[in-house]
From TrEMBL:
PANTHER family: TRANSCRIPTIONAL REGULATORY PROTEIN NARL-RELATED (PTHR43214:SF24), TWO-COMPONENT RESPONSE REGULATOR (PTHR43214). This is Response regulator transcription factor. InterPro entries: CheY-like_superfamily, NreC/VraR/RcsB-like_REC, Sig_transdc_resp-reg_C-effctor, Sig_transdc_resp-reg_receiver, Tscrpt_reg_LuxR_C, WalR-like. The modification 4-aspartylphosphate is found at D55. The lineage of its organism: Bacteria, Bacillati, Actinomycetota, Actinomycetes, Propionibacteriales. Residues 145-210 form the HTH luxR-type domain. Keywords: DNA-binding, Phosphoprotein, Transcription, Transcription regulation. It comes from Kribbella yunnanensis. Residues 4-120 form the Response regulatory domain. Pfam families: GerE, Response_reg. CDD domains: LuxR_C_like, REC_NarL-like. It comes from the Bacteria.
Length: 218
């Protein structure tokens, strides 16, 4: 079955361009294209997409408000926020709301298709710049502690801290001197134990729960 995608952007040319690029992929099908957040909520309910590409700034209802409503429902799709600049503050609020990541509008066709595949598979799309801004944001907003949640083993807590630093599984494996498959198992256990959807929510959780502290190493 192809990955079903809904494209949400107030610029018709952007919608058409993304739609054409994605429909050219053998494993992706664009099932709808709409121009604002309110239409996105309706289309998501009617079309049941697997992934929604959602512009951050739109008239009538912006992408953040729409993402919050869509992601609060049962069996919600994955949401990738579309933005022009990776320093858009709405992106970080969207991650807290449950979005699986963000994508710059000037991304290449391969990056666009790859992003859809990544989040459809249950992973998250996080750039290092987003992780750094999350650190800064949470540091300003609240004091942090270093006590890991009781549900996690000490090794799982170590993995969560490294995930929150933005490290990929391969890098975490090297850091902890374990096999990459072992890291994948730890990440899966973390998501299950903490009832999190993906790595994006794990990063947000790590800072909100005070599992990590700011700095070059946590």
């Amino acid at each position: 079955m192809p990955i079903r995608v809904l494209v949400v952007d107030d610029q018709e040319m952007v919608r058409a361009g993304f739609g054409a690029l994605l429909n050219a992929q053998p494993d992706i099908e664009v099932v709808g294209q709409v121009g604002d957040g309110a239409q996105a909520i309706t289309a998501a309910a009617e079309l049941s997409p697997d992934v929604i590409l959602m512009d951050v700034r739109m008239p009538v209802m912006d992408g953040l408000a729409a993402a919050r409503e869509i992601l609060a429902g049962p069996e919600a799709p994955r949401v990738i926020m579309l933005t022009t600049f990776d320093l858009d503050d709405y992106v970080y609020a969207a991650l807290r709301a449950g979005a699986s990541g963000f994508l710059l509008k000037h991304s290449t066709p391969d990056e666009l298709a790859g992003a859809v595949r990544v989040v459809a598979a249950g992973d998250a799309l996080l750039a290092p710049s987003v992780t750094r801004r999350l650190v800064e944001d949470f540091t300003r907003a609240q004091p942090v502690a270093t006590t890991p949640p009781d549900k996690l083993t000490p090794r799982e807590a170590d993995v969560l801290r490294l995930v929150a630093r933005g490290l990929a599984n391969r890098q975490i494996a090297a850091e902890l001197s374990v096999a990459e498959q072992t890291v994948k198992s730890h990440v899966s256990n973390i998501l299950t134990k903490l009832d999190l959807r993906d790595r994006a929510q794990a990063v947000v959780y790590a800072y909100e729960a005070g599992v990590v502290v700011p700095g070059p190493r946590h």
